[in-house]
Specification:
single chain, 498 residues, Aldehyde Dehydrogenase, Chain A, domain 2, 2 domains, 40% helix, binds nicotinamide-adenine-dinucleotide, Ald_DH/histidinol_DH, Ald_DH_CS_GLU
Amino acid sequence: MVNTTLLINEKVQVFLKGTKEMFIDGKWVPAVNGTLYESINPTTNEVLAKIYEGDEQDVDLAVKAARRAFEGGWKKTAPRERARLLNKLADLVEENLEEITQLDSLEYGGTLAVAGGFAQNAVHHLRYYAGWATKLYGETVELTGGGNIHAYTKREPLGVCGQITSWNFPALVACWKLAAPLAAGNTVVLKPAQQTSLSTLYIGKLVEQAGFPPGVVNIVTGAGSKLGEAITSHPDIDKIGFTGSTVVGKRIMEKASDSLKKITLELGGKSPNIIFADADLNKAVPGAITAILMNTGQVCAAGSRLYVERSVYDEVKEKLVEIAESFVLGNPLDPNAQMGPLVSKAQVETVEKYVEQARKDGANILTGGKRPENPELEKGNFYLPTIIEGLDENCQAVYEEIFGPVLCILPFDSIEEVIERANSTEYGLASGVWTTNLQTAHTMIESLDAGSVWVNEYYLTDDNIPLTGFKQSGVGSELGLAGIEAYTKVKSVAIKLG
Ligand code: NAD
């Protein structure tokens, strides 16, 4: 395997030295309790950096700073000034794309191509919502009862937003959690996942450099069970924006109810990807591979249940296995690697347990189903691309989110059957359909109970398209106009004119 340290750029090496502090009220500070945790490189399981582990005392300081910044001026800042600052931050993130990409590759194991693509999307995302800062407005309202009354609505920011992120594309999700709330005039207390705090802290340096007033953005680091809970139960936080698992999302909803905080929850999925016999298989098969193996399967919207019409099932299966077996696993900083490790030892063990259970349920493991037998990879959290057949929707590997490179393939015989089976899940995040028949495509679009339906391509996401989790995949929407409106409240005004 390529020597990691040789590949790390100088700025990243400097950044990794020393103890990483939190960003509160415009200053870099240690945790009040002085405790530290270690960030681990999943490629080697060696320590990458030491980071302060905050608790409710740090959250309280951050919330107080965010409240002061909000009331002290940020909520009334001219929208074009907010746009300018967000555009400045986007420029700085773009100038530091290599560093941010490397930090994410080092900390969660995404390949340079994937982590770099996500980091570039973070830049687009910041610019996208910088644009919306100057385009939010209310409406004039004609009253149903008539009369000499002037009525209108206006949009106002919510206040202090507690933003909590997942580890699977850290820099991008951090920017998702900053851009819309800041553009709408809110202040932010941001908590990255404990496994992946580094790129968020690096972006914190860029927030400082961009010139955001102190307290507008605060970054606290630490465990979900302690720091996350302190955020969701803090009485002076107005909204929680969360990306993570459904289990934790439910807990957040419960805690947020104490003070009726507004919430946006982007949660897990077990998304169906469906290949009809009339599809262009030269596109559908590689598309199905990307749908499951991109980011080592650690994507909320991963196409982890692949339904294939029976007449093309064997052909699709053969091609899938061929591509999966050609995948090059390796150090994510090596440009030749197509797939890196999973984020942590715990995550590989989770994947192993699911595959073990699948075996007990009678699965036929077509390829993978184990860690690679390559001495160069044995220190890291690597797992082979895995394709499983012979299970149905009653099996755990088919109905639960695995969050690893494990694809279940399932044959089907009719459109009615596949609609019912695709929807037979508690999740409803995304779905894919591969067909050349317009009627089939539209029938599926109407019938799939998922927030996103992608036809003849997978991961057709864009800043302008809202991302919504149906059923237990979420509450509210992120991205698009809906994504920024979720960080505003509508005030209604009625003036009696005499
Ligand atoms: P996770 O739920 O374990 O953790 C997410 C965040 O919540 C972390 O910052 C964690 O520290 C924090 N947290 C944990 N317990 C908490 C608590 N009790 N109170 C407050 N915060 C707490 O998720 P993860 O393992 O980091 O990420 C993977 C999950 O995220 C998957 O389920 C995936 O589907 C989901 N995800 C969803 C989207 C989406 O847009 N829908 C995007 C990416 C990931």
